[in-house]
Structures are given as structure tokens and as C-alpha cells.
Amino acid sequence: MTKQQIAVPNVHNSQSNSDIQEGYVVGADIGGTNLRLALADHEGKVIARWSASTAGIRDANIVVNLIAQGIDHLLQQASIPRSALRAIGAGAPGVTDTDAGVVIATSYLLGWRNVPLRQLLETALGIPAAIDNDVNLAALGEHSAGAAAGTKDFVFIAIGTGVGAGIIINGQLVRGSIWCAGEIGYMLLPGIPDAPVERGQPGALEGVIGGEGIRTYWQAQWTEAITTLPKEATATQIFDHATEENSLAAQILDRAARTFAYAIYNTALMLNCPLFVLGGGVGMHPALIEATQKFLDQRNTRAKSRLAPSSLGADAQLIGAIHLALQTAAIA
Amino acid sequence: MTKQQIAVPNVHNSQSNSDIQEGYVVGADIGGTNLRLALADHEGKVIARWSASTAGIRDANIVVNLIAQGIDHLLQQASIPRSALRAIGAGAPGVTDTDAGVVIATSYLLGWRNVPLRQLLETALGIPAAIDNDVNLAALGEHSAGAAAGTKDFVFIAIGTGVGAGIIINGQLVRGSIWCAGEIGYMLLPGIPDAPVERGQPGALEGVIGGEGIRTYWQAQWTEAITTLPKEATATQIFDHATEENSLAAQILDRAARTFAYAIYNTALMLNCPLFVLGGGVGMHPALIEATQKFLDQRNTRAKSRLAPSSLGADAQLIGAIHLALQTAAIA
């Protein structure tokens, strides 16, 4: 199904361009554990929210049915007629062919392969749909209404369990020739292993700055004698305790920040983009941002890189999905 | 002068859009040692060439006068009236603000700072001019008529004395927020020094794959006992002799290719572009391309990177300048 153009239902042409001004759109953030929806007006203002668990659900049809139910709730909640709904934008955590409207592959949590998500949504909902990768949508969110509003070039980097980037150059998302742009978790940098890793395994950079990599490293180094933190600590807890010099937590933060600074430095050299917006629970940690910025500032480059935490936080992807829906409604 | 819009002479609007079909353009490749010009028809076909030495010349006005003289020769040579000339495209080896038409900074050979090259050319020649960085123009050349013809996303990497890249994404040059995109010579990679370097000094990657870095490393390692090559060898001569296993030349090639593969791998992860076109005397060496491709092929990535030598060779920048002139003539 990859790269193949999917037949687009008539709904794409059933709306006039000006209709969106009196209409509404839905943004959907599809995750491996949660589905979140938001109803927004023609300016992107969120009117109502709805969420449900997706734990254990792998069938895309069931997810689409959940979305349809959620939209019913949202419309009822906001007392808006179904006919006022203009479009939906949806993001899934995986490689997404935005031209064909197909999710090519997600992680094991959803386990999707070549899911024609746009078609499923349009058939189920009777409105135009557009889809993209979750990190790209978060970048779109920060660009339209967040920490990167008003900038032309920036990179959004999400660090949670893993690491991913959404790149906006000249105001446009860079998606890549086979929809894989921004896979920076596999970057090779000084001081980290450069052995080839299997696809699906954590990348070299991911092992040092990703939540799972940090947790694993912590457990391997942990002894009762050197810290008051428990062996079962998360990356953000470890960063919280990185204030005491030379402690294990401080060493881990130092290693993460130094390596992350290398990755940002390399990216800034390549693209000459001045702003990096950091999202995700690990990426937004103030200690990581401060320590990484310090390493970056030590380098005498023509173009300085500025780090900023996501201003939309956990909503970045949802706001991006709304923005995508607004674009879709405008051209439908 | 940076970023400041320069008043554009009336010549910009004195031609009709269809005029280019009966007209000609000039491409100029301005270097620290040579100036090369080519006259081309409306399809970009080169009709005549001219060149002159720029050794010792640092004054931009003298370079522009040389260009004017060269154009006189070209028109005479091809028996084409001056009135048939529609535009000029020119590239200099430095950071170039293409909006303002200003060369912000070149290396010491020309030593330019904030030279309003577009204005100087338009005033001297009475035709519309456009300018860009030399590596960007080479990328444009390979994209319009070379090894990257027909591709949407690729990176051109020039390796001569130093290293630079021109990036084309979605068919458009990525120039960067302050015109410095593609400075990959400073990339930080496994196995090479990560200490901050002063601006103007060779970068970390440059030290390993650039002609000057290889030459310096060779001289430091050289003893009469281990090689028949002289101490004063160039990078391409060293690569020519890298066929004997475990020789110093083979070690240097191995180190260069491994490090270069890291840089390409990181770039491909970020941009997901499938093609890297290699230019410059060192970059086009078959031994380097073969060895680098071998390292890349060892990595199990979703997106494979293909290396190809420049098909335009030393003409890439000149052909790019012609292409830029054609674009300029079309919109003038």
C-alpha cells in the first residue's frame, strides 16, 4: 500500500473554501496507551476535549471507531451539529506516508503496518482527513501556536522513552524521501558506541539521552552506597537529583547533555537553524536543557543554537493535529 | 550591509518573460585563484568559455571588471550581440546572503567582507544578476544537469582542501537562517577530536577527510621506511596508493572513509535523503567513494544512502551559475 495513492472520497470536494470560517475541526493524538481528541474552532481554539485508553488495542478499525465515538461526545458536549465539522487531523507514533495517507509502521505498542488511516477516517466520519507522524505534528503544533511561532526554521526534538525530531525548514515540514526524516536517535557521536544496531533497537544517541537508555544505565551503575535514589528511578527523577556534584545522577546528566549538545551542534551545522524546541518528559527537563545549552555555548560557531522547552507540552501533537485539520479543511 | 535589501536597478524589469527564449545568459565561477565564465543559451547549453587568473586579486571591483571584460570576449567569440544577454549568475566561495545579494564573508584568498556583489554586477553589466555560495551553486548544477537530475532530495558534498555541503530538499536549496547551512566540516563524530575549534580553523571532520587535513596527517606519520610515496604527497596521491593492505595510505583512506560514512549516516538520518553527490578532487576519488559506501552498507537503516561522484566535475558550479542566471532571466 506504501506510496500508492488512495482513492479520496467525495467529501474532499463537498465543502467550499469559506465554510471553515463557520465550522469546526477535530485533532486526534493516537498513542499506544491513550487516544486524545480535541474539538477546535476555525482559529484553532480548543472547545472541548475527550480521551480514552488504547491499552491492548492494536486493530486500527477499533481505534477509528473509538475516534468516531469520541467525536459524538465532543459534538454533544459543545452543542455543535455534526454538519459543522469540516475535517480531522490525526497523528500516530510511526512512519507515515502523508501523500498516500498511510501509516507505514509503528512501534510494537500499536503494531501497525501499512494502515490506510486517512481512508479509514474518511469512510467512518464522512469528512476530509489528513494524517502525519506524531513528532511531525508536535513540530507543527509548536510552529503554529507554541515555542516556535513566527520562526521559519527550527527543529523539534521529543525525548521520552526514545528520541525523535520534527524538522521545519522554510516553514515546511521536512518528511524525507521515504517519510523517515528526523530519526536522530541513531546518530553517531563522540563517546558513544558506533557499532551498527538492528532496526527497532535503541539507537546510539537514544541510549544516552532517551528515558529507557538512562534508566538502564542507572540500574547498571547503581549501588546503595552511592545514592539515596532507588534502583527503580526514572530519567526525570535522576535529573532531579543531578544537583550534587560528582554524584552518579550528575554524571549521567553530564553525559546526556554533552552528547545531546553534539547532536544539536551537528544538526545546526547542517541546517543552520537557530532554534531547537525540546518536548517529551525527558527533553523538557530544565536540568537537561540548562546543561546542554552550556555545552553548546562553549562552541564558537557562526550560528548560535538556542534551546527552548516546548510551550505546548503534552498538547503539542494535539494542537498540531488541529492545525493539520484546519489546513485540510481550507483546501477541501 | 547583511540582510539589508539593496536597491535593484531598473534592468530587473526591462525584459519580458519570453525574452529568454531568444536570449543568452552568463555563469561566473569566482575563485581565489581563477575566474571562469561560460555563455549559455536559453536551454543552458554552453556556447563559449573564458577564464582568467584571480591570484593576488582581492578587490571585488577588479573581479567585476574582469567579468565584464570576459563577457566582451565571450560575446565576440560567439558573435552574439550584447542586447541578447539576459542575466548573469555568479558564485563566490563564501557565506552569501542571496536575498540581499551580498557576499558576507569568504576565505582569506579573496578576503571579502559584506561585498554587494549583485549590485556591483548589475551596475557594471546592465543586466539582472543573482549570486550564491559556490557549493550551493554546484548543488544546483548537479540538480539541474548532473548526477542528481530528477531527484527531489539530495546533498552535494565538496571535498577539496576543505569540506562543504549544498543541501536540496523538496527541490529547493536549504540556505539556513544566516546563510551558513551545509557547514559539515565541523561535524563531531566518533573517533575524531571534539574540542571546540576557532572559526576559520579546520573543523573536526575536515581534519580527517579534507585534502589539507590528510596531507598534514600524512606528513606527521610519514617515514621513508613505510612507503615509497614522497613526504610531499597530496590526498588524491595517497588514495591512489591505498591499495596495499595495512599501508599508511590504506590506513588513512580507512580512517577518512569510516569518518565520512558517519557524517553521511547522520545526515541521512536527519534528512532521509537517499542520494549524496560527491564533488571536489578528494571527494570524487573512486577509492574514497567505494570505501565510504562499504561502511554505509554495513548499517541496517530503513533508508539506504547512495553515493555518486559529481557528473559535472569542475564544471558543477559554473553550470549551477548558468541555471541561476536562467531562473533570474525568467523572472526578470
Strand content of chain A: 15-25%
Structural class of chain A: alpha/beta
Strand order of the largest sheet of chain A: 3-2-1-4-8
Helix and strand string of chain A, N-terminal first? EEEHEEEEHEHEEEHHHHEHEH
**Main beta sheet strand tally, sense and closure of chain A:** 5 strands, mixed
Largest interface: A-B, 47 and 47 residues
How much helicity do the residues of chain A have?
Answer: 25-40%
Q: Tell me the overall shape of chain A.
A: globular
Overall pLDDT of chain A:
90
Our measurement of the CA-to-CA distance between the termini of chain A, rounded to an integer number of angstroms, reads 23 Å
Oligomer: homodimer
Tally of individual helices of chain A:
9
| Number of E-type strands of chain A | 13
Low-confidence stretches of chain A: 1-17
From the alpha-carbon coordinates, what is the Rg of chain A to the nearest angstrom? 21 Å
Question: Can you walk me through this structure?
Answer:
Two copies of one chain form a homodimer. The first copy, chain A, is globular. With 332 residues, chain A is α/β, with parallel strands linked by helices. In chain A, helix 7 (248-271) packs across helix 8. Helix content of chain A is 35%, strand content 22%. Chain A has nine helices and 13 strands. In chain A, a hairpin with a 2-residue loop joins strand 10 (163-169) and strand 11 (172-174). Residues 1-17 of chain A have low confidence and may be disordered. In chain A, strands 3-2-1-4-8 form a five-stranded mixed β-sheet. The first copy, chain A, has a five-stranded mixed β-sheet with strand order 11-10-9-12-13, with helices on both faces. A three-stranded antiparallel β-sheet of chain A has the order 5-6-7, covered by helices on one side. At the A-B interface, strand 10 and helix 7 of A face strand 10 and helix 7 of B.
